[in-house]
Amino acid sequence: MNAPASAPWTITGDEVVAALDSDIVRGLDDAQASGRLERDGPNELVEAPPVPFSERVVAQFKDPLVALLLAAIVISLIAWIAEGAEGFPIEPVVIATIVILNAALGLWQEMRTEQAVAALKDMTSPHALVIRNGRVVEILSSELVVGDVLALEEGDAVSADCRMVDSAGLDVAEAPLTGESQPVTKTTDPLATDTALADRTNMVYSGTAVTRGRGRAVVVATGMRTEIGKIAELLGAADSGETPLQRQISWLGKMLGILVVCLSVVVVGSVLLTSDDRSFTGVIDALVVGVSLAVAAVPEGLLAIMSIVLALGVQRMAEHGAIVKRLSSVETLGSASVICTDKTGTLTRNEMTVVAAVVGDVEIEITGVGYRPIGDAVLNGERLQSGPIAAELRYLLAAGALASDAAIESDGDDQWDVRGDPTEIAFLVAEHKVADVAAREARFDRLDVVPFTSERKMMTTLQRDGDDERMLMISKGAPDVLLDRCTRERRDGDDLPLDDERRAALLATVDGLADRALRTLAVAYREVERGATTIGPDHEEDMVWLGVVGIVDPPRDEVADSIREAHEAGIQVVMITGDHPRTAQRIADQLDVDAVHARVEPDDKLRIVAELQADGNVVSMTGDGVNDAPALRTADIGVAMGITGTEVSKEAADVILTDDNFSTILRAVREGREIFADLQKVIRYLLASNTGEVLVMLFGVLGAGLIGLDAVEGELAVPLLATQILWINLLTDSALAMALGVDPAVDEVMSRPPRGMEDRVIDKPMMVTIGLIGLVSSFVALLAFDLEMPGGFIEGDGDITTARTMVFTTLVIAQVGNAFNSRSDVVSAFVRPFENRLLWLAVAVTVLLQVAVVHLPFLNDAFDTVPLDAERWAVCCALAAVVLAAGEIRKVFTRAAMRRQPALS
């Protein structure tokens, strides 16, 4: 069996030990342990098998856009063969290279991510102290079996689910499992059957850690049967699904496929209907043009550019403390409309801090946060350095630090190492801020201790004062418990008697601190007879009340600004925590969090995330504990903590924060939005360019008489040849598009609301831009053709080869202006035009290559072009400039319309 017949927290420890056929003193013998290990298997979580390399490769080719490119390769090869298989098949080879490089980039990024995640692993202790054969021995955690008796001490990691059988002030940090920020004091008493996981004080669980005390516990569950194991099983049922970007690119690929087929049929049919050449060769030529046009309409560079843009974004995010496990997750963060976040360690520092101290009737503020002992005592807005109140404060904090087991040391580089219970560390850090701790440590020697227990709710130490050999008993604990044991109060340097009225006043002070969601601890002392070396609980009476402190886990300094930025970006911030509701609400109020869900369990987190998604939100879920893992997997984007996060949460997440900082999430959101903006720039540019090419062919064939194309005899009556179409496509899909993919932000991406789940990557404004630029590009290109050709709307005196060269060149130069225009759908191309140096380099390369195609003899033969004189170049450039002007005019009207719209509330 793997557990007692009854829930182990509902029966006594002795009954659990008996049910498991174990022994609290001797533990298991080797034969028992070996048999149970063979029966139940190792104490390990079952990991998902690695994805075979072949499946990873195939996954890179499942995108509809990739399928479209693969079809383009096949069609291009057919066209090349149909033309007699002469020369090198440049187009299919180039497209195939793009597809292969895209797949290789995806695989490379996956491997890099796996290496980064592996480097982050900070596993809990792989060993455990158990009692075997009556002796305490150290074994591998994987060898723990049901019935083993664990010997637990401060600093130990708990490696299995156990029922406590003995506890001496044992406190366990359970935040990774329950979300509770405060260590839980463990007891041995049975509990009710319906006791919630976070309230099972007689149980310790795998993945938690002992912060104070010692005890013994019998293992009741191992491996996948532990609470961590149950949550790991939930992960298998949680589906991460496609990201918004993957859905949008999939949609785009399907739409382009349909459009390409329709356009090709129309153009080929038009060519065949208007051409006098009905021979087999003429039909093949028409089909070649149609195939070339189909390939030209497909933005084959988009997929590779998208992957490169995402990969560069991943690198930038890693520099800012976020490791992305899959490329598409980068953009998903930019789509987030809700960020669900844990409290402890994410919004807060996870460093308990004394922020207030009350001595007598005076409350003193203690400044500074966290475990760095930098701060001051402040009274009425001024620094408190001397006088009786300062002396009482030092006395209070010194006594609280003496009644603890915490330690804090400097490493000499402004970094501090701490150990012990977080609240005790808080006392010690506060004392460092106002007093000479080294002098106090040299003065007092601890002789004995009565440890903290949940029943007593206090801890007491016996100290020898080296200055006058006095013996002092110092206690720290719950204010109401400690006050009952006090008969006097220290005030203004005197010990004054306590009456009922004064006790009520002190309790009111404590309640006031608690109402501010501060954890309260009181300190008291008394002198004992000289020569005493031991004390017990019976000595804890007739004490002198020194005062009370208020402790809080403070928010991270930068989180408030980040949440404000989230609100400005239209993102809702929701706190989901296992912590106490009052504590959670205090932090939420300080940081202006939109909603709070406290005391939640793993299935609650799943439900909350699912409900938010059902409302149409793109949900980002952050967390560090095992209890967060199912929700991390289910959310659109799961963000795990790299420092405090458990391995289960890291495995479930899409993004891992190396600094555990909420503000890093907002930086990632900005990065995601900027990446999507860059992708839209590329899509806007590519589709507008390709639309211009398609419309040149379509309108040129349909309106052949208007531009003089009907006068062409003896060859295919089209404004562009197949080789010229492919050259334009290769030129525009490469350098210029890549430069736009890394373009610095022009629009303020964090001032707009997040995109909806169903918002298209090509929205209405972009459609207008694509249509307008495509129409204008085709118009000016055909105008260049008409200016050169005899007949048509404008009489010219050139030939078909020169006219095609004019169309060819005008389209290429027009795309240069289109690249600058595509930087924004709203902001002028002349705003910060020189920020993107790579774009200017791409412009230079594009223009030089086009000049080469027009003027180099061997390229004239390959692309059927002729050199142009300066006048014709000027005409091409002037006509191409109309494209940029059209974009600028449209933006003027767009900005005017935006100014007339009411501001978002």
UniProtKB/TrEMBL annotation:
Domain called Cation-transporting P-type ATPase N-terminal: residue spans: 7-81
Subcellular locations according to the entry: Cell membrane
Recorded topology in the membrane: Multi-pass membrane protein
GO process annotations (BP): inorganic cation transmembrane transport
Principal location class: membrane
Protein name as catalogued: P-type E1-E2 ATPase
Listed GO CC annotations: plasma membrane
Keywords recorded for this protein, A-Z: ATP-binding, Cell membrane, Membrane, Metal-binding, Nucleotide-binding, Translocase, Transmembrane, Transmembrane helix
Catalysis performed (reactions): ATP + H2O = ADP + phosphate + H(+)
Membrane-traversing stretches: 65-82, 88-108, 255-274, 286-312, 694-712, 724-746, 766-785, 800-817, 838-858, 870-889
Family: Belongs to the cation transport ATPase (P-type) (TC 3.A.3) family. Type IIA subfamily.
SUPFAM superfamilies per the UniProt record, alphabetical: Calcium ATPase, transduction domain A, Calcium ATPase, transmembrane domain M, HAD-like, Metal cation-transporting ATPase, ATP-binding domain N
